[in-house]
Design goal:
It is a single chain. The protein is mainly beta. Among the domains are: about 40 residues, no CATH class; about 110 residues, no CATH class; about 140 residues, no CATH class. It has 3 helices and 35 strands. A hairpin with a 6-residue loop joins β27 and β28. α1 packs antiparallel against α3. The longest helix has 16 residues. The chain is globular.
């Protein structure tokens, strides 16, 4: 690599770590806004872009249609905190409702798909947050693992796309159809791992700086709220690669393992054994902290508290606490920034630092009664706005703001940004993600990827497709500019 290339990459890393996003062009009035007619119908093909209706800014583009794979397939861009694009926004992972994820080239400037679709991850997929060329796939049993043959259903693979560090051009992108597959994490190496194919696996998440991968897996039964094991795999140097957490533990306290020796999970504040056992609804990591969530009624013990706040685990000390025992409110859906826990409750968005959870601050006010909200926080810092989608009811005549919208909460100023309606048909929708207008975001947090049936206007069965919406960050995201400049430079000088 040339000296100038190395210098540019060092400058890029500094730029990414210092990145703070704002949305000065987004609508932020608290007026009641009617969604109006859906902008897309069945006759609008993928690649079509249309302006968003006033008062929203920008445009919305259709990414999938019946020709993308099959006419009967509905699509989703995923749920909640999972990122749909790679680190520089030039690869995108789109998922069918049958849980098959396909990798495409994506141009974040034009918001169009330009190729790919042959690579399939039939399990869960997450992108690296520091390396644009890498994804991680927990591939289901017997599905192809690229150059390695068939997957065994117990292995996480790294997928490397050789040219993904080069920025996507205005008309052409590299093809993502031939990544190199590498066996990265054999679940059998983890303490307490079961044999055979798992019955259920939860959400696959990655730490903020690619510290770790985390999976909740169940070999005994099937479905959420029945399993009791989740596994934390260290991607960086560590004396122990895999840590296993058993949420049922010894019947009184959860246990953690790095080998066959059980250790009691202690109370983060007192040092005494944690008095809580539960079955897993979900588990996720943000690096230093991990979370295991169980609904009320599936957690037992004095440290469970009341409600559905998660058990928060420090991944370094293996100590934990029940968040809802520290300060109310903890209900509703939640997300994280680098060091904070964010949740919505009773018409407001709250934030607190995980190390000192008794101090809780109201960040934004928004009356969301009758609606669900699904969040996505920026794991790189605590200052970027938290992005979210509201939904559940059918688009109709609204009596309050923020209904069925893609919104953001500025955690410092309290401004509520409003980016677009979802045009979800609510209870008429054909799937959960469409009913709630589930939206995920690029890692640069400048493009939203909306799952919508456009008021059931895409076909008679209310199929859902994916739509991209530019969120208008200030001065066009500086990171995107630098990535494109470096990509062009590397392409010119690589010889």
């Amino acid at each position: 690599m040339h000296k100038m290339q190395r210098l540019l990459l060092v400058l890029l890393v500094g730029t990414v770590s210092a990145q703070v996003i704002s949305y000065p062009k987004a609508y932020n009035n608290s007026n009641i806004v009617q969604a109006g007619p859906a902008p897309f119908t069945a006759s609008d093909l993928a690649g079509t872009c249309k302006p968003l209706p006033a008062p929203y800014a920008g445009q919305i583009c259709r990414l999938t249609d019946p020709a993308t794979k099959t006419a009967k397939t509905s699509w989703t861009a995923g749920v909640e905190q999972a990122s749909v694009t790679n680190q520089n926004g030039t690869l995108i992972a789109l998922t069918t409702m049958g849980s098959f994820t396909y990798i495409y080239s994506f141009n974040p400037a034009t918001m169009k798909i330009l190729g790919g679709g042959s690579v399939i991850c039939a399990g869960s997929l997450v992108w690296d947050v520091t390396k644009a060329e890498r994804a991680h796939c927990f591939q289901q049993n017997s599905y192809a693992a690229g150059n390695l043959g068939k997957a065994d259903g117990k292995t996480v693979y790294a997928l490397d796309f050789a040219k993904a560090s080069l920025a996507c051009g205005k008309s052409n992108c590299y093809s993502p159809d031939n990544p190199v597959w590498t066996k990265e994490w054999d679940l059998a190496t983890c303490p307490l791992a079961g044999s055979g194919t798992p019955k259920w696996a939860g959400m696959f998440t990655i730490g903020a700086n690619d510290e770790d991968l985390l999976l909740a897996i169940n070999w005994d039964k099937g479905g959420q709220n029945t399993g009791h094991l989740f596994f934390d795999w260290k991607l960086r140097n560590s004396a122990h690669k895999c840590t296993t957490y058993d949420t049922q533990g010894n019947g009184i306290s959860p246990l953690w393992y790095t080998d066959a020796t059980p250790h009691v999970v202690t109370n983060y504040f007192t040092g005494a054994p944690l008095q809580a056992t539960w079955f897993i609804h979900e588990a996720r990591t943000i690096g230093l902290w991990a979370f295991s969530i169980g609904f009320a009624g599936v957690c037992n013990g004095a440290d469970c508290g009341k409600g559905d706040g998660p058990i928060v685990i420090n991944a370094t000390t293996h100590s934990a606490y029940g968040l809802n025992n520290q300060a109310k409110p903890t209900g509703g859906h939640n997300t994280n920034t680098a060091t904070q826990f964010i949740n919505a409750d009773a018409g407001a968005v709250y934030k607190r630092f995980l190390a000192t959870p008794t101090t809780i601050v109201k960040a934004c006010t928004a009356d969301l009664s009758g609606e669900d909200i699904h969040f996505s926080g920026d794991l790189r810092n605590d200052t970027s706005p938290v992005l979210a989608t509201t939904g559940k009811v059918q688009t109709a005549t609204w009596t309050k703001p923020y209904m069925n919208e893609i919104i953001g909460c500025d955690l410092n100023s309290g401004i509520v940004y409003r980016f677009s309606p979802t045009w979800s048909s609510g209870p008429l929708a054909s799937n959960f993600n469409d009913e709630y207008g589930m939206t995920t975001f690029s890692q640069q947090r400048d493009v939203a990827f909306l799952t919508s049936d456009m008021l059931c206007g895409l076909d008679s069965a209310c199929r859902s497709d994916i739509f991209a919406i530019k969120l208008q960050p200030s001065s066009t995201n500086i990171v995107t500019k630098v990535l494109h400049a470096i990509g062009r430079f590397l392409h010119i000088t690589k010889a």
